[in-house]
Every structure is written in C-alpha cells, then in structure tokens.
Amino acid sequence: MAHVAKWKYKEVEEVAEILRKYPVVGVASIFKIPAPQLQSIRSELKEHLLIRVVKNNLIRLALEKAAADKKGIEKLEDLIDGPTAIVASDLNPFQLYRIVMQKKSPAPAKAGDIAPHDIVVKEGPTSFKPGPIVGDFQRAGIPAAIDKGKIVIRKTTTVAKKGDKISHELALALSKLEIYPFEVGLDIKGLWEDGILFTPDALSVDIDKLRADVATAASSAMNLAINIGYLTPETVPILLSKAHMEALAVALYAAVPEKEVIAVLLSRAHGQMLALASLAPDVLDEELKSLMGEVSMSASEAEAPEEAEEKKEEEEAPSEEEALSGLGALFG
Question: What is the rounded CA–CA span in Å between residue 289 and residue 294?
Fold first, then answer.
C-alpha cells in the first residue's frame, strides 16, 4: 500500500472543515490567472470570500467527507476540471457570483486559445499609419486598407467564431487593435447552498431587471385583486375606501337622505330652486324675491371690481383733443 503523506490528511480535513463551516461553498477555475492577480482578488474580496487552492483529488476527498453533514455537496465534484480552488462565503450565491464577476478584467488572446465567443473587428479608421502592419492585418483575415494617410478596416468582420482556435497572426492583430476577447479572474463553476447546486446559467441573472420585474408583477397583482374584489390584508383597506366612495356616488345620484350626503343634496336642491325661480320672477312671493335679490347683489358685487377697473383705465387714457394738442406741441 502506497504511503500517504500526513500533510495531505491534514489538508483534506482543513478543506472539509471549511466546507462544513460556511453556508455557501463552491468550486472555481483558476486557469490562466497570474499569481499576482489571484493574490489581488483574495485581498480585495477577503471580507466576503475565502479562496483555498488545493489539488483536485484532495478537493474531491474533502467534498466526500463534508457530504456526511451537507447533503448534495458532493455534486460539486462533477464541476472540477483543471486548476481549481475552493470558494466559501457567508453571502448568498447570487451576491457572491456578481461580486466575483465584477472583479474580472479583459485579457488579450494568445496563439492556440479557443475563442470564448464570436470575435468581431468593426469597420472604421485605426490609429496606425501606412506600413507593413497592413499586411499583418490582412494575413489575420482582417480587411485592412490605406485611406487618407491612415489604415482603415473596410468592413465589419467576424474573424473567429465561438470555439475556433486563435492563430498566432490573429492574436497579434487583435492585441494591436486593443481587442481583448478574454476575461481573467475567478471562474465560478458552481455554488452550493442548503442542498441546492447553482450553476453559472442560474447565477448570471440581471438583479436590477429582476427587481423591476418583481415590482411590475406586484403592481399588476394588486390591480387585479382590486378589480375582482379579492380580499387580502393589502387589498381590504383599498376595497373599503373604493366601496365607500361608490356608495356615496349612488346615494347622491338616488338622492338618499343620509347624513354624509344630506348637505350636498340640500345645496344642490337650493341651487335648482333658484334656477327655477329665475325663470318666473312675476310669481315669486316676498321671501323668494328677497332671496333672489341677495343673489343678484352678490353677483353685482363680484362684477363691481371689474367695472371699476375698466372705468379707471378709460379715465387714464388721454382724449383725442389732448392727444392732438400734444402732437402740436411736439412739432411746433
């Protein structure tokens, strides 16, 4: 039986303890991350994230040990491929994934890399002056030409499809054009929480859009509940207020003498009586004539300020004779 170094047992137990301790754990690829950048990521995220780089076979052993306490955590084994690190956090999986993604930075392509997506070079001028670089671009499949003393890209071109192998010539040309198709940073392969394994396709949601969608759904649900009279703690106060206003409207329309509408009904009846009385002034008794007189006086008082203002303007305007004499004095 092969001898197993004691440090490996210790390493497995330490990683298993991390997996047991944190509510959210996962595995992340560290492929092509330079050591200084990995250290920088560790430093920047130390408040939210623990990163432990371990050999893959030791990670698998630690996952199997932790599975006794955390059901389903062993599913992370299927996501281990290439250089891998254990990640652990007290943030929820979606917050953690978003923070890690924000720390990624653009990186240039190298010969032999596989294109992560379609790589497109857009039409337009470049900053390069005419020279041998035109041939370099053309050998990379980029339609370059010289126009007005500058190298230009004649048309937008897809120089590599997703999954294509990037040639040496294309890698150099893309770097010169400052097109960086790769991102360097932790690549989360999966996160586990409460027995659920979250993969990147589930984690890469637009949080702002999700919030807006939830708010829209809540508003639509409230409107529907109000319109169909569905009773909930949120809708009851609104439905009672709506019913009260509708009852008042019916009472006014049907002239129901309830205490909440009687004042409005009396005021409306009084106005209708005065309107009718104004149509037959010769048959009014003394009381109605007096009442009509008060209404007329109120109307006259309201018009008086306007008439006074008009009269004042007329008095201030010069007469025709005054205007002519003024002209005569002006011209001698």
Answer: 9
pLDDT in tens, 157-176: 999 999 999 999 999 999 99
Kindly list the distances between the CA atom of residue 27 and the CA atoms of 43, 58, 85, 198, 275, in Å, as whole numbers in the listed order.
Answer: 18, 13, 6, 11, 86
CA 49 to chain centre: 26
pTM: 0.58
Output DSSP code: residue 1: -
Place of tokens 């109000």: 226
Domain at 6-104+185-205, CATH homologous superfamily: Ribosomal protein L10, N-terminal RNA-binding domain (3.30.70.1730)
Tens-place pLDDT, residues 278-326:
777 776 777 777 776 665 555 555 555 555 565 555 555 555 555 445 4
Domain at 119-182: CATH code: 3.90.105.20
Q: What is the 3-state secondary structure (H, E, C) of 260-292?
A: CCHHHHHHHHHHHHHHHHCCCHHHCCHHHHHHH
* AA identity, residue 249: A
Helix (H) / strand (E) element for 196: namely strand 196-198
